[in-house]
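Repro:
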Amino acid sequence: MLKSATLVICLATSIALGGCATHQGNRILTDSAVGAGGGALLGAVAGFNPLVGAAVGGAGGAAVGAATH
C-alpha cells in the first residue's frame, strides 16, 4: 500500500510541476529534472537501480519538455 501511495504522489507531483516553465529551453530543463527525480524515486521504490530510473526519467522528461511548447 505504501509503494502505491508513493507512486501516486510522485506522479501527481511530476505532472503538476512539469508545466511550470514558459520558454521551451526552460521547459526542457525543468521537465528533465522532474523526470530524473521521479524516475530515481520510482526506481528506488520499485526495487530497481535509482540511477537507471533517473536516466530514463530525465530523458523522458526532456523529450516531453521539447515536444510541448
